[in-house]
Amino acid sequence: MAHTVAVIVGSLRKESFSLKIANALARLAPPSLKLEIITLHGLSFFNQDLEPNPPADWVSFREKIQKSDAVLFVTPEYNRSTSGVLKNAIDVGSRPYGKSSFLGKPTGIVANSPGPLGGVAAAMHLKSILPGISGPILQQPEIYLTGVGDGFDDKGNLTKEALEKVLKAYIDAFAAWVERLKK
Ligand SMILES: Cc1cc2nc3c(=O)[nH]c(=O)nc-3n(C[C@H](O)[C@H](O)[C@H](O)COP(=O)(O)O)c2cc1C
C-alpha cells in the first residue's frame, strides 16, 4: 500500500508558487507515495491558554499529520525565514508537550522563491527548529527552487522542464527514503 504524505503548504496566497509546487509534486510522485495537500487557511493562532481545550481546527490539523506516514513542508521564504503561517502550524502540531504530531515522521523540506536564492534561508530555519519535534529530515538531496515565478501557466500547470526534472528527482528520492525507513 502507498505511504501517505501530508504536504504542508506555507503560503495562503491563491496563486502561491508553493501551492503549485505541492500540486506538481503530488502529480509527479511515484505510486508508492500518496501526497495529501494541506493548506493552512482557517488554522487559528496557537495560544497556550487554549491547550487544555484545543479548538477543532487544531485537532483536525493534528489528526491529519498523525495519520500520515511522512511529512513534506513546501515553504516560501519570508524575510530570510519560513512564513509566519507555517511557523504557527508547526507550533500547533508540536503540542501538547512531548506529543508532537510530527514525531517520528520522515520529513522533507522543499524551499522555493521567485528570487535567485531559492528559499535556502527558510529551509535552514526549518532545519533548526524541527529536530526536537519531528522525525528524521531528509538531508540529501536538498532542494532550493530558484526563479519559480515563470514555472507555471495560468492554470497552475508546470511549464519549465528543468523545474519538473528537479521536482521529479526529489520526490523519487523522498519516496525511496520513506520506503527504506518504513520497512
Ligand atoms: C513578507 C515577505 C517577505 C519576503 N521575503 C523574502 C525573502 O527573504 N527571500 C525571498 O527570496 N523572497 C522573499 N519574499 C518574496 C516571496 O518569495 C514571494 O512573494 C513568493 O511568491 C511567496 O511564496 P508563494 O508564491 O508560495 O506565496 C517575501 C515576500 C513577502 C510577502
UniProtKB/TrEMBL annotation:
One of its GO terms (molecular function) is FMN binding. Residues 5-143 form the NADPH-dependent FMN reductase-like domain. GO terms for cellular component: cytosol. Coiled coil: none annotated. This is NAD(P)H-dependent oxidoreductase. It comes from Candidatus Afipia apatlaquensis. The lineage of its organism: Bacteria, Pseudomonadati, Pseudomonadota, Alphaproteobacteria, Hyphomicrobiales.
